[in-house]
Automatic annotation (TrEMBL):
<dbReference type="InterPro" id="IPR003594">
    <property type="entry name" value="HATPase_dom"/>
</dbReference>
<dbReference type="InterPro" id="IPR000014">
    <property type="entry name" value="PAS"/>
</dbReference>
<protein>
    <recommendedName>
        <fullName>histidine kinase</fullName>
        <ecNumber>2.7.13.3</ecNumber>
    </recommendedName>
</protein>
<dbReference type="Pfam" id="PF00512">
    <property type="entry name" value="HisKA"/>
</dbReference>
<keyword id="KW-1133">Transmembrane helix</keyword>
<keyword id="KW-0547">Nucleotide-binding</keyword>
<dbReference type="GO" id="GO:0016036">
    <property type="term" value="P:cellular response to phosphate starvation"/>
</dbReference>
<dbReference type="Pfam" id="PF00989">
    <property type="entry name" value="PAS"/>
</dbReference>
<dbReference type="InterPro" id="IPR005467">
    <property type="entry name" value="His_kinase_dom"/>
</dbReference>
<dbReference type="GO" id="GO:0004721">
    <property type="term" value="F:phosphoprotein phosphatase activity"/>
</dbReference>
<keyword id="KW-0808">Transferase</keyword>
<keyword id="KW-0472">Membrane</keyword>
<dbReference type="GO" id="GO:0000155">
    <property type="term" value="F:phosphorelay sensor kinase activity"/>
</dbReference>
<dbReference type="InterPro" id="IPR035965">
    <property type="entry name" value="PAS-like_dom_sf"/>
</dbReference>
<dbReference type="Pfam" id="PF02518">
    <property type="entry name" value="HATPase_c"/>
</dbReference>
<keyword id="KW-0902">Two-component regulatory system</keyword>
<keyword id="KW-0067">ATP-binding</keyword>
Length: 590
């Protein structure tokens, strides 16, 4: 039983006890008055009977005494008849073994009874006696007093029985009313208690709580209203949580960094993209003032500009992040609520580093292509003009110039062909002619092709093949192109007396082809760039070798088209090693 029901039940019991006690006292008083009035009425009748015998004088003195005595015995009372001088005329009867106290009568009772025109009843609780005095009047003359007194023990006994019956009845009534009251209180408080518990659960955020709807009265309407409120709150909370989850998911998974700054300048929100871009710890970044949190003055300047002007700002920044410098497009906007209330600032960081790199690559590509095309075209044009100016007459000179023109034309054709191959490979939807290829056969063909260059360069070409069959699924022509480029580059950059080794390793699901040389090697910072178009480690030497600068770019794209991987390790003066990892089974979309 909760406190509400206890208080209500306590109040009900208090009220019930008060009502029953008041009712008992009232009924007791009524019954007591009734008994006293009945007792007084009997004594009055006795007094009048005695008076009638005494006043009528129809009997002599001895007979009157005998009649008074009989009356007193009949009524079990004591009768005293006094004259006008308070002298006892008759005195008879006894009071339950008690002697009559005439002194008490004269001192205490007569003063009360005398001078009364009618009979007067006087109970003496101290002596447990009741007195009734009836004056004897002749006209208006006082002739005496008939005084009857009797014990009130029977009256007290009747009164006690009355109180016993009254207490028993009221006690039974109290128990019955209490049980009915408890049931009624429980019936009406249980829905209120249930509604209170549900309201407390709702206040705690448990919107799944429900109460019973048992009745159609006011308590039932209360329970129904509480349930409707709970359902509405649950729906609203679910919608809000769904909206919050969507917003949180959007903010956390957007590709751009996002920061929310409140109106006082404190950072309230940082998404995952920003933390990953700038390598910041959210615990040390959140709820900090923006000028303490940001490490770059350019960003602080943007925030201050928005605070001062309250207008949108868009700027491109080139700022350092750890050991590299990255390009960002920063978009900042003020957050202004209703009634032009200032809420804060939102900053969005778009990482455009790759776009800048692509733009630079495009510029470099155009510049390199222009430069690579310009050199052979300039040679062809110059020697052609020289021939037209008269060098044709000198056969030896003409043959020399034409040989150079042919060589530059071949170089130009090779460059254009490589560009076409690279463009074709990079196109979306480029398809390889997949077939089962024997790696041993492929490398033996390449050995025959490059054996003449190996002898010319005086560089030993070693090919180490494993025992057994080595088959992979791929495009035979494109695979040959990959390894011709790699081995040819190794021969080109290996000085006289060195060697180039090609080694094949069989693995469970892959075949590794390792091309290593004892050439000039590369610096570590140059390795990430060797697969770029037209990038040369030794520009002068590679240009003289007739290379286009596109070979390794083609190799990289062809390896990736075969779902393989290529890696490089190199050391200055000690050589370079290329490792090509190809899958035995070609998996489309792998």
């Amino acid at each position: 039983m909760n406190r509400f029901r206890s208080r209500l039940l306590f109040a009900f019991i208090t009220l019930l006890i008060a009502v029953l006690v008041g009712l008992g006292l009232l009924l007791g008083q009524i019954f007591n008055s009734y008994y006293i009035d009945a007792f007084a009425e009997i004594m009055e009748k006795e007094a009048k009977l005695a008076k009638s015998f005494f006043v009528d004088k129809r009997f002599n003195t001895s007979e009157e005494s005998s009649l008074v005595f009989d009356i007193s015995n009949a009524y079990q009372s004591h009768i005293t008849i006094l004259d006008e001088n308070d002298k006892i005329i008759h005195d008879s009867g006894k009071l339950e073994d008690k002697s009559h106290n005439h002194t008490h009568m004269y001192e205490n009772v007569l003063p009360i009874m005398k001078n009364k025109e009618e009979g007067h009843f006087y109970p003496d609780q101290k002596d447990k006696l009741a007195y009734f005095g009836l004056p004897i009047m002749e006209g208006e003359t006082y002739k005496g007093l008939i005084l009857i007194n009797t014990s009130i023990a029977e009256l007290d006994k009747a009164n006690l029985q009355m109180w016993g019956i009254l207490i028993i009845c009221l006690g039974l009534a109290f128990i019955i009313i209490l049980l009915l009251g408890i049931r009624i209180i429980a019936q009406y408080t249980r829905p209120i208690e249930s509604a209170t518990k549900v309201a407390m659960e709702l206040a705690k955020g448990n919107y799944k709580a429900r109460t019973y709807e048992d009745h159609l009265d006011e308590t039932g309407m209360l329970s129904q209203s509480i349930n409707i409120l709970a359902r509405n709150l649950q729906d609203m909370t679910r919608a809000q949580e769904m909206q919050q989850d969507r917003l949180q998911t959007l903010i956390e998974n957007m590709g751009s960094g996002l920061i929310l700054i409140d109106g006082r300048g404190y950072i309230n929100l940082v998404n995952r993209a920003y933390k990953e871009l700038f390598k910041v710890d959210s615990a040390k970044f959140l709820y900090q003032l923006y000028y303490d949190a940001f490490m770059h003055k350019e960003i602080i300047d943007i925030v201050e500009e928005i605070f001062m002007t309250e207008v949108k700002v868009r700027k491109q920044l080139h700022i350092p992040v750890k050991i590299e410098r990255r390009h960002f497009e920063v978009y900042g906007a003020p957050i202004i609520g209703t009634n032009d209330e200032w809420k804060g600032i939102v900053l969005v960081f778009h990482d455009i580093t790759e776009l800048k790199k692509l733009e630079q690559v495009r510029k470099d590509f155009v510049a390199n292509v222009s430069h690579e095309l310009k050199t052979p075209i300039t040679s062809i044009k110059g020697f052609s003009e020289t021939l037209l100016d008269g060098a044709l007459s000198d056969r030896q000179t003409a043959e020399y110039f034409l040989t150079i023109i042919l060589k530059e034309s071949d170089r130009l054709q090779s460059l254009i062909q490589d560009l076409l191959d690279l463009s074709k490979i990079e196109q979306q939807g480029y398809q390889l002619s997949i077939q089962s290829c024997d790696v041993k056969e492929l490398l033996e063909d390449i050995n025959i092709i490059l054996q003449s260059k190996s002898k010319e360069k005086e560089v030993e070409l070693r090919i180490s093949l494993p025992e057994g069959l080595v088959f992979i699924e791929g495009d035979f022509y494109r695979l040959k192109q990959i390894f011709i480029n790699l081995i040819n580059n190794a021969l080109t950059y290996t000085p006289k007396g060195g060697f180039v080794q090609v080694k094949v390793e069989k693995h469970k699901e892959q075949v590794h082809v390792i091309v290593s040389d004892t050439g000039i090697g590369m610096k570590k910072e140059e390795i990430p760039r060797i697969f770029e178009r037209f990038y040369r480690v030794d520009r002068a030497r590679s240009r003289n070798s007739g290379g286009t600068g596109l070979g390794l770019a083609i190799v990289k794209h062809l390896v990736e088209a075969h779902k393989g991987q290529i890696s490089v390790s190199s050391e200055i003066g000690k050589g370079t090693t290329f490792v090509v990892k190809l899958n035995k089974k070609y998996h489309e979309g792998y």
